[in-house]
Amino acid sequence: MNRRIWLKSGALLAGGLTFLPDGLAAFAARSAVLDSPKQLTDEAAVLEGPPQLKARLLANENPFGPSEKARQAMVEAMSTSYQYPFAYTRELVQKIAAYEGVTPEHIMVEAGSSPLLQAAAIYYAQKGGAIITGDPSYRDLPDSAKDLSAIIVEVPLTKDYKLDLEAMEQKVGSGTALMYLCNPNNPTGTMLDTAKLKAFCERVSKKVPIFIDEAYIDYVPNPQATTMIEAVKKGQNVIVARTFSKLYGFAGLRVGYIVAQPATIKLLSKYAVGGMSISAPAIRGALVSYQDQEFMKDTLQKTLTSKEFLYETLKKEGYEYIPSVTNFVMFPLKMDGKRFVEEMARRGVGIRNWKFNNQEWCRVSIGRMDEMQAFADAFKQLS
């Protein structure tokens, strides 16, 4: 039983271009329509790919892993892992609340952000309205809601591959249940102008709840200046999702949280397990990792070094790319996307493909330098 089938049955039981290279500008002029009916998920890409890879660049993971402090804390946590980690979960919530300047009642933690996205999908889908999202963008919440019979309104990106806030606002009507924004956006790696997004949230949240998925916010230069948690602090009807799966290196450990109005937290908590879903080692590791500036700076620098290597590799082979603020990069292909993925896999490199704007695209996650070299070696054979 896959998680969406489980989600549907569970819900029934619960009742409820200016910055782009010239070459990309030409692609952007075409209509931004997602040609394939449903994109492969990262989970499916990993499971369907070859078991052994030289470079696993298909799931936007942080290959540098958790910090040494987190690893040590998790090892130490094993001796008392027969105990429920209630106190540590509460401590993490309090630590996040203190840093963000909100109360603990504004926060809900879970085993990664996926259960939180699905809790929102269940709650807003049962309202019977429409969910507005970008196209292409991250599919977890919209696809889960669609499986529960919600109407999904997909709005093409702008010419510079960003979420089109103006067009999305125009789609809001009396039947709209939720606005979902992934910012920075996956799979394009682009980010919205912060001032415009703040104004959008202040204006549109009066009409419809806005769910902002900030999974990749820690990769931008100043997350505190660009996050929309400030909108929550102002009392706006905004939900902000965060995860430890990316920069903190917890993709396999599963820790995430949302920041929202206390009333919204209470509503969504009915459709999520909450802190009890997180293991004692993971919660202890998250506690020491959270806002570990030395670790975050080091990981960011490694990511940037690998990303610059990827940019140079693409340029040397005559390829354009979408400048990214995240730990992945998307670029247009010159061959069939499915075949490209298969050929790269045969060479030990796992990547992802998309099709939109009547163009085949590849998304490459940023890996260690040895992984990026493996990508470059394989790519040169196909480019």
Please characterize this protein's 3D structure.
It is a single chain. It contains 16 helices and twelve strands. It is an alpha/beta fold and 383 residues long. The strands form three sheets. Strands 2-8-7-6-5-3-4 form a seven-stranded mixed sheet, sandwiched between helices. It has a three-stranded antiparallel sheet with strand order 9-12-11, with helices on one face. The longest helix is centred in the last third of the chain and has 24 residues, at 293-316. The protein is globular.
Mean pLDDT: 90
Structural class: alpha/beta
The protein's oligomeric status is single chain
C-alpha geometry = globular
Please estimate the helix content: 40-55%
Write the H/E string, N to C: HHHEHHEHEHEHEHEHHEEHHHEHEEEH
Low-confidence stretches: 1-19, 26-37
The number of helices is: 16
Strand elements, count: 12
N-end to C-end Cα span: 39 Å
Main sheet record: 7 strands, mixed
Overview features:
383 residues, 15% strand, three-stranded antiparallel β-sheet, alpha/beta, globular
